[in-house]
């Protein structure tokens, strides 16, 4: 069964992949985090890990009381192996995140001319006391100039679920999609669009999100094992491309508990349509000169 939100502003998206083999365009490989190395600080695929393999930094945290994260394999997410388990009871914004190389210097991406498709699995493990608009879990991408892994004016895509409706017409216990104006403006819960994908404890969600740095929009899909919702061309909040993946959270009171698991994170670069057109034009011009 496939469900698409009945919103004229959210036309159904068919996700496609452009060739990554365009000669001379990018030598970047997929950047990934599968937590195969377990807990530690000596290799990139650990938590907190270290820089390398397309990552500029290890995993980091934001918040006076940072979320607790540990790699385990006690209850695998989507297929087995290690995954990152994160828990928080902090009644203010806090987050985990990681910065990837956006200069292309060490196998990273050139985010000004390449779309980035982020794919990852998130399982909701605990929602104790999840009943307020101050209870939320946010998936977003930001720029390191924002100085935080929390949601900010530097966040491009923003996907958030609340324990209660945050604004008129916005559903509680549902993944909401932020529709910004790509101007780095202030946050408003009224900018969220209902996705139709419910948030439930025990469910695993596979996200695929494509950030377009030219249009400053994002498209994507959410799959919960049986149903897929899709959207296309929602505006960023930020004005500049992202170089951080982050998960931001908050609970209403300190006795509440929010816990989730993260696995199978990949970030894949693809030439934008305008970049491909430019490359094609340059190739034709070169041939004519020859």
Structural class category = mainly beta
Total DSSP E strands: 17
CATH topology annotation: Jelly Rolls
Helicity, in percent? under 10%
What is the averaged pLDDT score?
86
Q: How widely separated are the two ends?
A: 54 Å
Please indicate the count of domains. Answer: 1
The CATH homologous superfamily = Exo-inulinase, domain 1
Major beta sheet summary:
8 strands, antiparallel
Strand content: 35-45%
Tell me what the CATH architecture is: Sandwich
- Number of helical elements: 1
Gyration radius, in Å: 19 Å
CATH class: Mainly Beta
Q: Which stretches are low in confidence, meaning pLDDT under 50 for 5 or more residues running?
A: 1-27, 274-285
Give the quaternary arrangement of the chains.
Answer: single chain
User: How would you sum up the global shape?
Assistant: globular
Order of helices and strands: EEEEEEEEEEEEEEEEEH
């Amino acid at each position: 069964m496939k469900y698409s939100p009945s919103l004229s502003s959210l036309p159904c998206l068919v996700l496609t992949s452009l060739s990554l083999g365009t000669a001379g365009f990018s030598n970047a490989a997929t950047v990934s985090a599968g937590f195969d190395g377990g807990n530690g600080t000596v290799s990139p695929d650990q938590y907190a890990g270290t820089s390398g393999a397309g990552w500029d930094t290890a995993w980091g945290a934001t918040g006076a009381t940072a979320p607790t994260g540990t790699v385990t394999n006690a209850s695998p997410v989507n297929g087995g192996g290690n995954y990152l388990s994160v828990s928080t009871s902090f009644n203010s914004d806090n987050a985990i995140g990681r910065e990837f190389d956006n200069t292309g210097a060490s196998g990273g991406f050139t985010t000004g001319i390449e779309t980035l498709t982020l794919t990852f699995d998130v399982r909701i493990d605990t929602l104790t006391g999840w009943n307020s608009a101050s209870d939320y879990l946010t998936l977003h991408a930001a720029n390191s100039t924002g100085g935080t892994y929390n949601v900010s004016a530097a966040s491009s895509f923003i996907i958030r679920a609340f324990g209660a409706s945050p604004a008129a017409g916005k559903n509680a216990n549902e993944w909401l999609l932020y529709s910004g104006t790509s101007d780095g403006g202030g946050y408003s819960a009224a900018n969220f669009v209902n996705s139709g994908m419910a948030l439930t404890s025990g469910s695993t969600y596979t996200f695929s999100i494509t950030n377009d740095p030219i249009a400053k929009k994002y498209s994507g899909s959410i799959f919960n094992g049986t149903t897929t919702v899709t959207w296309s061309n929602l505006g960023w909040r930020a004005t500049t491309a992202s170089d951080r993946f982050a998960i931001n959270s908050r609970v209403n009171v300190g006795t509440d508990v929010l816990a989730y698991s993260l696995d199978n994170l990949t970030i894949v670069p693809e030439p934008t349509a305008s970049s491909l057109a430019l490359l094609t034009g340059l190739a034709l011009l070169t041939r004519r000169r020859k």
